[in-house]
Amino acid sequence: xxxSKNTSASWVxxxxxxxxxxxxxxxxxxxxxxxxxxxxxxxxxxxxxxRGRPVGSVKADTKQAVTVRYSPDVLAAFRAMGSGWQAKMxxxxxxxxxxxxxx
Length: 103
Fold this sequence. Notes:
Helix content: 25-40%
Structural class: mainly alpha
Strand order of the largest sheet: 1-2
Strand content: 5-15%
């Protein structure tokens, strides 16, 4: 078996940041909404921003994800409409409900 001629160093992901210690975080200059704040306020803001959607971004009438089975020809016809076919299917179902007095 022949030896590999690849002599390059192993690849290191440039996005791999080192773990930060509590000392690193307390020495950092924290900015929240464009103004400098204390490390405590900065850490609190970081914890609040770390999870979930922004406050107020979820509407009460948000669409719901469901699993539905459609006939292949119906699905193909809507997909052939291109981008936004799911919204067009939603509109078609909504129109059907209006014409059949379901809403």
